[in-house]
Amino acid sequence: MTEKLIISGGKHLSGEVSISGAKNAVLKLMAATLLAKDVTKIYNVPELTDVTIMLSVLGQLGAKTSYDKVEKSVTIDTRELTSIVAGYEFVSRMRASFIVLGALVGRCREAIVALPGGCAIGERRVDFHIRGLESLGATIKIENGYVHAQAPRLEGTDIYLDIPSVGATENLMLAAVLADGSTRIQNAAQEPEIADLANFLNAMGADVNGAGSSEIIINGVKPEKLHGIEYTTIPDRIEAGTYMAALIGTKGKGIIRNINPAHLTFYTSKLTQMGAKIKLIEPTAFEISCNQRLKALNIVTQPYPGFPTDLQSLGMALLTVADGVSIITESLYENRFMQVPELRKMGADIHQERNHALVKGVERLSGANLRASDLRAGAALVLAALMADGYSTIDNLHHIDRGYELLVPKMRALGADIERINDESDIVADKVRGNLNGTGTTKI
Ligand code: EPU
């Protein structure tokens, strides 16, 4: 049964919402548990399909896992592993599964992990991961779509990344924890999720320094030094950015709780330049409001601490109705403008050339039938539908389910008119028809 979101837009959102744990941090912490032969418990774990897939990957390797929905925690027992193979059935569904490579090589000195291939937003190569592991002493063969890494001995070394890749930095950190001697990763990614992983590893007994800066030094430790821990992951800055955009785009007013404001500085400054009011009312809560038409501005996505690529589609949706012309440059991925044709259906005026998009702000968007092509493009369509006049439907929800826990209840807590319904339901047809015959609010 396929499902759709049905959204009636044009309402000013107001209320409070609390942000869940960071998907892109927690997936890596889960993989890191493989390094210690012990039981680890992680809190603030969002209930998402990506988390379920990572639990299955760990289960396939022989770890015993459980998820407590009430406590929002995972418990992972890695005392005995029974396999070194992470299969295509999981890696193809979630490329972040590739992170188990570094941890398995560290602990078992051998790993066989399916290659993720490209995805909707770009080619997404893993060459830095592979080259880095080779510099640490691993022998790597690529056969039948799998990476087979063998490393009877791992020796610390200097690794320079051509691009500050998040995944490569994390995979190499994990492999270096149990290497002999020190590893220095230069031009490392500086995302908050990397610092979270380093804090987690250090709590387990590892010796990782400098995470959050462009140079990370990992002093190898003996396996006996590592032990299970209890750890709470950081809040999801991309989910926070999504709800901030929803309040701003609907000219609403509300409070976003459980955030780390330091993780959102660049984004917050851009939203303020657009005309939003963002006030830190508690160390972990923003009050957001906007009561004017947004102003156009330019956005260039960059590795952290620059404007996050994962919020580029949300920034674009806001700018579709801003006063003036904006230019958005996507510098991390080749194909991360998948939201553009869908936003055009709603009346947006966007001209795209390669990785640049010229957005001429229009007065208003109108509801339409939309399709999510990937996680963040899907989130941008939810935002655009909330901003638009009339009804919109959004399908292909499995993309959105990967990264937004309780999207519908959280949006409803802010007063949004949003429902998740069975595709075949008559309500969808009736409501969207309402846009056309005037019983919706779209002016045609
Ligand atoms: N790259 C290479 N070779 C490599 C590794 C990366 O060419 O070996 C390139 C990629 O093709 C890409 C760029 O470097 O063009 C950056 O990729 P990076 O490795 O930093 O990204 P990632 O680790 O695959 C994580 C997040 C993404 C987020 C990026 C950038 C996870 C699970 N995913 O991906 O999140 O966009 O960092 O911040 O942590 C999302 O949540 O929707 C999402 C896509």
What's the quick description here?
The chain has 444 residues and is of the alpha/beta class.
Your description of this structure?
The two termini are 32 Å apart. The chain has helices at 23-32, 49-60, 88-91, 100-108, 127-135, 166-176, 192-204, 237-249, 265-274, 312-319, 340-345, 375-387, 398-401, 407-413, 426-437, and strands at 3-8, 14-18, 39-43, 64-68, 73-77, 85-86, 110-114, 139-143, 146-150, 158-160, 182-186, 207-209, 215-219, 230-232, 253-257, 277-282, 285-289, 299-300, 325-329, 349-353, 356-360, 369-371, 391-395, 417-422. With 444 residues, the chain is of the alpha/beta class. The longest helix has 13 residues, at 192-204. It has a 4-stranded mixed β-sheet with strand order 22-23-1-24, sandwiched between helices. The protein has a 4-stranded mixed β-sheet with strand order 2-15-17-16. Strands 4-5-3-14 form a 4-stranded mixed β-sheet, covered by helices on one side. β12 and β13 form a beta hairpin. It binds uridine-diphosphate-2(N-acetylglucosaminyl) butyric acid. Uridine-diphosphate-2(N-acetylglucosaminyl) butyric acid (EPU) binds next to α1, α5, α6 and α12.
Q: Which SSEs are present, and which pair or pack?
A:
Blueprint: E1 3-8, E2 14-18, H1 23-32, E3 39-43, H2 49-60, E4 64-68, E5 73-77, E6 85-86, H3 88-91, H4 100-108, E7 110-114, H5 127-135, E8 139-143, E9 146-150, E10 158-160, H6 166-176, E11 182-186, H7 192-204, E12 207-209, E13 215-219, E14 230-232, H8 237-249, E15 253-257, H9 265-274, E16 277-282, E17 285-289, E18 299-300, H10 312-319, E19 325-329, H11 340-345, E20 349-353, E21 356-360, E22 369-371, H12 375-387, E23 391-395, H13 398-401, H14 407-413, E24 417-422, H15 426-437
Parallel strand pairs: 2-15, 3-14, 6-7, 10-11, 18-19, 22-23
Antiparallel strand pairs: 1-23, 1-24, 3-5, 4-5, 7-9, 8-9, 11-13, 12-13, 15-17, 16-17, 19-21, 20-21
Uridine-diphosphate-2(N-acetylglucosaminyl) butyric acid binds next to helix 1, helix 5, helix 6 and helix 12.
